[in-house]
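Summary for the steering committee. One of the milestones for this cycle was to obtain a three-dimensional model of the protein with 3,4-dihydroxyphenylalanine bound, which we needed before selecting residues for the alanine scan. The sequence and ligand used are listed below.
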Amino acid sequence: MLAKLDTIEQEALTSLGSVEDEESLERWRVKHLGRSSPLMGTFDQLGTLAKGERPTVGRRANEIKKVLETAYQENSETLRTTAIQRSLQAESLDVTLPGRTALHGRLHPTTQTMRTIYAIFADMGFQIYLSREVETDEYNFQLLNFPPHHPAREMQDTFFVESEGDRGDNPLLLRTHTSPGQIHAMREFAAANPENPPPVRIILPGMCYRYEQITARAEMQFNQVEGLAVGSDITFGDLKGTLSDFARRLFGQQVRSRFRASHFPFTEPSAEMDIECFVCGGSGCSVCKRSGWLEILGCGMVHPVVLQNGGYDPQRYTGFAFGMGPERSTMLRHRIDDIRYFFGNDLRFLEQF
Ligand code: DAH
């Protein structure tokens, strides 16, 4: 019997060598320490042994049971630690890898300039008024004092939305400037009190379209910010004061400006405003084309016909208007030499602002 027990122990310990994972260890435990294992069988058979043999066999069987249980415990520990090590290895992180850059959005440079322009005019009491991009010939030209065959229309080669036949001499078109918003705004303000229309002080920002050859200086799509002030005693002095203050706030307090006579059908008199070239300080460089001055906007006193078309009696009211291109101002502020960058969507350009 003792010899049989030795074999049981030997076999159990040898087969432990081929245990590789927790599953096979559990099978080993059932086989060698479980209820129906040969070892447990010997305890059941103790009663059949001769009295003198029982204590020695019992003691030996217990001893083997302890040995196998200890071996089981140790194996189970080792298996658990190697499993942890293996999973640590498999899931290891390389903490020396550089992190991924978080991309964050930003405002388009034109939007930034436009918001600065809004803030400057808001400080001076101007409200923002939005007007449509698809216009009629009447609003875009006729009510602004461009007669049907006026040569100034040549300046604004137009995208028509429908052929001229469809609506007679009033075809739909993409607005070539933000000035038609002046008429919409004045009519809306005047409708509130036609006998005594209220004063107007607004800016009208938005996209304009012209059928142009695209070059470094001209796009067929661009923004404008229009301005309009109408009231009872508005003079050319108000126009000059407002716009030269605006230029100082946008381009720097030291910036000087000047007004040159010009012509627009919807203003009389009309002017263009230049600022002193801030690149060369007025001495002449390639940015100002040796003139020392940079043109930044068109302006003038609202033409009596336009006031009338807006519902404001030109005998009682006067006003000034202006229009500027925020892309152009942005080009000047940041010395950008090609307007095509604004719609090119090249991140290398956009990320600089
Ligand atoms: N509408 C003109 C243009 O697109 C700009 C302009 C000039 C607007 C004079 C005005 C103004 O309101 O008074 O070239």
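Key point for the committee: The chain has two domains: 2-88, 109-350.
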